C-alpha cells in the first residue's frame, strides 16, 4: 500500500489544490478579523455582537465556513484523481496495471483523505492560533484568551476534518454514478451547507457533531467499498 501511495503522490499534481487551500486559509483568517470588528458596529444586531465578542463564537462560525469551502475543494480533487481516472483512456491504462483495482482505489482514497484532513486542520487550527494571538495583543476581542481556547480549536479542527473527509468520500461515490464533476462538487456543497449550522454550534452540541462526523466518515468508507465493487465490475 505504501508503494502505491508513493506512486499516486508522484503522478498527482496537488499544486492547484494547495493554492486553493491557501486562498481558503487567507479568506478564513481575514473573516476572523472582520468578525471581531462586528461588535463595534452600532448597526449590528445584539446577537451578532454577543457571538463575535468571544473567541469560541468566532472559532465556531469559521469552522462552518471552512467545512463548506474545504468540502468543495476535496470533492473536486476526488473527481480529478478518482472518478476521472476511471473514464475513457485513463481507465484502460489503470486496468492494464498488474495490481488489483481495489488497491489502486484505496491508495487514491488514502491520498484524498490525508490531503483533506491535513488541509482542514491547518486552516482551522493554524488560522485560529494566528488570529487569537494577534487579536489578544491588539485587544480586538472582548474576551480573555486561555489555553482552553487552543485545546477547543484543536478538538474542533479534528472533528471538522473527519466531517469534511466523510462528505468528500460520499460525494465521490455520488459523482461516480454520472461521471460528473458538477454532480460531485454540488453534492458536497449541499451536504456541507446542511451541516453548517450544526458545526456553527459545535461548542454547545459537541457530542452530536462528533457523532455526525463519525457517521459521515463511516458512510464514506462504506460507499468507497461499494465503489470498489463497481470498478471491479467495470474491469470484468
Sketch the major β-sheet: none
N-to-C order of helices and strands: HHHHHHHHH
Task: Kindly provide the radius of gyration, computed on alpha-carbon positions and rounded to a whole number of angstroms.
Answer: 20 Å
**Mean residue pLDDT:** 88
- Global morphology: elongated
The total count of strands amounts to 0
Kindly state the percentage of residues in helix.
over 70%
Helix and strand topology:
Elements: H1 2-11, H2 15-37, H3 46-51, H4 55-83, H5 88-95, H6 101-138, H7 147-178, H8 181-200, H9 206-235
Helix pairs in contact: 1-6, 2-4, 2-6, 4-6, 4-7, 4-8, 6-7, 6-9, 7-8, 7-9
Describe the protein in words.
There is one protein chain. The protein is mostly helical and 236 residues long. It is 83% helix and 0% strand. The chain contains 9 helices and no strands. The model has no long low-confidence stretch (mean pLDDT 88).
Amino acid at each position: 500500500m505504501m508503494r502505491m501511495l508513493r506512486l499516486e503522490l508522484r503522478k498527482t499534481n496537488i499544486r492547484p489544490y494547495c493554492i486553493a487551500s491557501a486562498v481558503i486559509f487567507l479568506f478564513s483568517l481575514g473573516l476572523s478579523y472582520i468578525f471581531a470588528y462586528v461588535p463595534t458596529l452600532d448597526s449590528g444586531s445584539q446577537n451578532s455582537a454577543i457571538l463575535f465578542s468571544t473567541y469560541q463564537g468566532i472559532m465556531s462560525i469559521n469552522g462552518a465556513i471552512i467545512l463548506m469551502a474545504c468540502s468543495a475543494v476535496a470533492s473536486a480533487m476526488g473527481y480529478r484523481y478518482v472518478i476521472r481516472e476511471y473514464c475513457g483512456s485513463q481507465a484502460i491504462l489503470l486496468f492494464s496495471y498488474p495490481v488489483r483495482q481495489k488497491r489502486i482505489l484505496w491508495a487514491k482514497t488514502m491520498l484524498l483523505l490525508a490531503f483533506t484532513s491535513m488541509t482542514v486542520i491547518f486552516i482551522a487550527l493554524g488560522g485560529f492560533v494566528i488570529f487569537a494571538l494577534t487579536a489578544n495583543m491588539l485587544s480586538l476581542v472582548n474576551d480573555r484568551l486561555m489555553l482552553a481556547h487552543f485545546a477547543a480549536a484543536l478538538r474542533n479542527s479534528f472533528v471538522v476534518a473527519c466531517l469534511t473527509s466523510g462528505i468528500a468520500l460520499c460525494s465521490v461515490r455520488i459523482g461516480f454514478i454520472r461521471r460528473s464533476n458538477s454532480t460531485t462538487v454540488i453534492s458536497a456543497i449541499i451536504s456541507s451547507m446542511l451541516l453548517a449550522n450544526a458545526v456553527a454550534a459545535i461548542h454547545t452540541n459537541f457530542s452530536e457533531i462528533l457523532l455526525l462526523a463519525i457517521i459521515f466518515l463511516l458512510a464514506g468508507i462504506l460507499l468507497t467499498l461499494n465503489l470498489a465493487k463497481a470498478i471491479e465490475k467495470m474491469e470484468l
